[in-house]
Structure to design on (323 residues):
């Protein structure tokens, strides 16, 4: 009989965000080995047969992690860490810190992340790159440069830096900037509308269906990823697997996907640096081909077969002592 795994995620399908897409993908990848239940919260009165808890988010899933550990102290507990876990919560939040201590295994989503964990927990840490299907690179127009940012309007994604860069580039008719993301912060939504009024070549498009977002990534010359904190952004992986180079903020969550030596980075909050990278991408004919070579070298890391094998191995090894 297949063991039952409860996969806890703070966001379900109605959120249509990265946490949900990760949970949904992992459930499919584990389905051949396990019965998988995907829930927002684990409850002792409903989860007595769960052989393992796999929890996304050390802080947001902390009540489920604590409840499972108390009800089944001998059973394995795997915790996957997000960017806000790694770069904020595990350093200041007692519940997130307890989740690290209770976990039998920790999953992180980029290759530099283990260095951001307290040393005592690194031995139980596994890097599992997220994945997506490869998409055929498209030929791009030479009439202009189209840069695309995909990220909801919230501070962690730093849309303000993109808007400030757009203002610096308002005199360049040949650099177009599209921005996809829901208005989670009303003040940032107001700022996006004001930027559109002042900069006709910046367009805030709001939330868009995932299929449309993938098509826009495929058609763009560049993906801009300006985040202040990330655990390993799936949109960066989608760009790499589409043959679309990335211009990214210099944070571990980006360099842990793109490579520590990735050349097209700018400092966090650096609108001038971002604008300079976009100007270089438009004016230097060698830049985009060079970035494509970097991204092509990283693309195999994000193959679904690689993620599936890593995830199945983590769960299988965690379950071995309990079988």
């Amino acid at each position: 009989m297949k063991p039952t795994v409860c996969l806890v995620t703070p966001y379900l399908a109605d959120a249509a965000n990265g946490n949900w897409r990760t949970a949904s993908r992992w459930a499919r990848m584990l389905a051949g080995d396990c019965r998988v239940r995907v829930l927002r919260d684990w409850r002792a009165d409903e989860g007595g047969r769960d052989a393992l808890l796999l929890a996304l988010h050390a802080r947001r899933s902390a009540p489920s992690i604590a409840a499972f550990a108390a009800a089944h102290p001998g059973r394995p507990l795997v915790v996957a860490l997000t960017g806000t876990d790694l770069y904020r919560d595990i350093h200041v939040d007692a519940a997130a810190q307890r989740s690290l201590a209770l976990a039998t295994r920790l999953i992180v989503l980029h290759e530099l992340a283990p260095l951001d964990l307290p040393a005592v927990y690194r031995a139980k840490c596994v890097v599992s790159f997220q994945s997506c299907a490869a998409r055929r690179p498209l030929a791009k127009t030479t009439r202009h440069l189209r840069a695309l940012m995909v990220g909801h309007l919230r501070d962690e994604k730093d849309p303000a830096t993109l808007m400030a860069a757009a203002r610096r580039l308002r005199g360049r008719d040949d650099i177009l900037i599209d921005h996809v993301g829901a208005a989670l912060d009303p003040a940032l939504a107001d700022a996006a509308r004001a930027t559109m009024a002042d900069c006709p070549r910046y367009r805030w498009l709001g939330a868009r269906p995932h299929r449309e977002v993938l098509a826009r990534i495929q058609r763009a010359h560049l993906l801009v990823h300006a985040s202040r904190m990330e655990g390993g952004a799936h949109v960066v992986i989608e760009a790499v697997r589409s043959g679309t180079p990335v211009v990214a903020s210099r944070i571990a969550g980006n360099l842990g996907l793109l490579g520590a030596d990735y050349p097209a980075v700018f400092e966090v909050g650096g609108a001038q640096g971002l604008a300079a990278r976009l100007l270089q991408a438009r004016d230097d004919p060698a830049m985009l081909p060079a970035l494509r070579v970097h991204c092509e070298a990283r693309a195999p890391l994000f193959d679904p077969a690689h993620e599936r094998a890593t995830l199945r191995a983590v769960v299988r090894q965690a379950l071995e002592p309990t079988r």
